[in-house]
User: Fold this.
Amino acid sequence: MAISYFGFISILKNLKSNSNFSQTLFFIFLISFCSCKSVSQAIKSEENTFQLREQIVFLVKSLNEGNEQGLKTVYADDYEGINPVTKFESKQTLVSQLVENQKKQQLKIEMEIIEIDAKSEMGFAVLKWKTISGFRTSKQQTLYQKKHLQIWIKKGEDWQLKRSLFYN
Assistant:
C-alpha cells in the first residue's frame, strides 16, 4: 500500500480530533504495515539465498562435468579471482582452461557451504573447497583443500560469480 507523505500527515491531523480508539487502530495498522514489509524483505532474502545456493551447486556440477556452456553462464564477464590451478586473462580463457583441466586431470570438486548470504542483488558464500585429480583412476590425489570466498551478483534472475579467493 503506497501512501504519500501529505496523505500520512492528513490522516494524523484527523486522528488528533478523533477518539483514542481511532488512534489505536491507526497505530495497529502502521505496525502491521511495517511488519508486512519486514516479512516480505525476509522472504526475498530467503529466496535469494536459496537461488544462490542452487547456483553454487550448479557451478560445482558444471566444473565436475566439464560443462563449458554451464560455466559460461555462471562466471560474470568481468570475473576476477585467484585460482590455484588455472591462470587466465578473460572469462573465455578461464572457462576453456577449466574444461581442458577437467579432461586432462579428471578433476573432481567437493565443496561444503559454511556460510551464505544473499539479502540483495549481491551475495557471498564461504565454502570448504577440495579439488581431487585422477578422480576416475586409482591414482587420486588431493590437489588442494582450502576455504573459498565467493562474491556473487544478480543479473536479472541469475546469479553470476564476480570474485573469488582461496585462502587457508
